[in-house]
Amino acid sequence: MALLEVKNLKTYYYTLRGVVRAVDNVSFSLERGEVLGLVGESGCGKSTIAWSLLNMVPPPGRITGGSIVIDGIDITKLSEDDLRKKVRWKKISMIFQGAMNALNPVFTIEDQLAEPLMIHKGLSKKESREIIAKLLKMVGLDETIMKRYPHELSGGQKQRVIIAMALILNPDLVIADEPTTALDVIVQAQIINLFKQIKQRYKMAMIFITHDLSLIAEIADKVAVMYAGKIVEIGSADQVYGNPLHPYTQGLLASIPRLRKREEIRWIPGVPPDLSRPPPGCRFFPRCQYVMDVCRKEEPVLKEVEPGHYVACHLY
Amino acid sequence: MSAGDVILRVRDLKKWFPLRRSLVEALTFKPKRYVRAVDGVSFDLHEGEIFCLVGESGCGKTTTGRMITRLIVPTAGHMYFKASEEVKSITPEKFVSEDGYIDIANPKLPKHVDKALRREIQIVFQDPFGSLNPRMKVYDILKEPLIVHGIGASEEERRELIYRALSEVKLVPPDEFIGRYPHMLSGGQRQRVAFARAMILGPKLVVADEPVSMLDVSIRAEILKLMMDLKEAKGLTYLFITHDLAVAAYLCNRIAVMYLGKIVELAPTEELINNPLHPYTKALLAAVPEPDPSNRFRIREVPIKGEVPSAANIPPGCRFHPRCLYTMDICKKEEPELFEISEGHYVACHLYKKK
Fold this sequence. Notes:
The complex is a heterodimer. Chain A has helices spanning 46-53, 80-87, 109-121, 125-138, 155-167, 185-202, 213-217, 237-242, 247-254, 293-297, and strands at residues 4-15, 18-30, 35-39, 61-70, 73-74, 92-95, 173-177, 205-210, 222-227, 230-236, 303-306, 309-311.
């Protein structure tokens, strides 16, 4: 059985200007030890998926339909209390976007890392110290950092602390939302290396969310491309990069400048639709170069084009 | 690449920001401390080229760009700019060198010259959300530089200039855009307005400070293409500032890599990418992710150690030596000079100096 099974997930924001369908009928599954890369442009709903998986979508957002089953538990049906005690951090932990700036400035790193251990596992501070030391070493930090305050650390070090914090209760699934956006290239490469090591050593399942297709290629086994609240293509990394099917995926891949290949880059004309008033039919049709009549009327569903490779496009 | 005349000669440019001294330091007459954001940068910009300054945050690339646009005043150094005849004619002779360059770093430059020079050197900022006044319509945003510089005798004339600027950046039909506020535009459109605002004064040199890093990937290429088109149409020269080597490699003719306020390597793009010499350049290149899924099975070797030190506390000798994997004794004592190792390829590293 898959570790995580998301079925027909719908997360809408009920704003005064109308209902924003940030995540609209999204389904995917994830095996243990597998890394899913979730890629899409700003506003496509990728972060909303992450919040939905912890069932903590910020208001006025709400999960309005579908199910999220992790390890046999449907978290959309759990009470807030059960969620906190059974799911969050124990089963699914998350590295939030910009989390390294959310470290509490008045507590030492040790105090902050000990908190989940004391609350969830009932350990004393002394008992947690050993675990923390081991974990810090694992993420490539020196033990002495325990006694430091966040302002004494560099951006890369803070991000490592955040990663340690996400791993501290040994969750089955770690969600990382743009974990390297604020970091410089070299530090970014080092953090990605760390994720690769964690993946190899702990066989942990991960969902890696970013707008950067190059970054996803560095880590993900499976890639899902999101556009305007929907998954438009999902498949193994080799399938999606080697044989991109959806015009949007093709456009994204063609828009990345390569370091060593002198190739003309292309772009996708137009802008993503307003999610409170998505266009009828396929949401991508106003920007698509292969648009047909059917695209304007009928919404395409995800179809399996080759084993494990799904695409939502009328072309196939 | 068209190697035109040198349009801007930057020599030993420095910007040191003073740090506040603590009471104890002041009372004990400790020397003043500085953040040496830019610490002796020299390069030539050729007419019609796209020159790139690349480096990590805090390396001084933005500060350099801002000094060239004279948004901040340099602490020391010179910037010899090849101004147009028009500007030269209004400049007192003592400020114009024999070969016709004006040192725009000179703080004694008369006000009217200074202002005229601002028309020739324009800047486009990174954040199109912050660089446009949210309370002004596109029309007024573009009209402001015209008013400041007294261009256009009548409203009709200005209107025409604004329309032309908007069509140049492909915001057509202009009628549809002039009445909008920035929040009614997409990120790409906003950046186009920022370019229109820079272009409306007819500059010769445009400093583009990370103009695409805040934009979504799918529209980045659109802005890069626009930059190329504008360059061709107007014969512009760009100083492009970025942290993204892949974008730099795509767009630029020459790349200068900065580290802690200094240029450590400068070469034509192909040469820099294929034959990097400075250990820092090698590390930077090794760290760039590429959309190749086979990368997921290997750990990227980034040949560098440690972290960037603070610019207030620059290591002695070669400023890169604490992070370098090839440190020698001399690196700790003597700062390497930037020298030409092969044609057009400059590097500041002791590894290549000895012969």
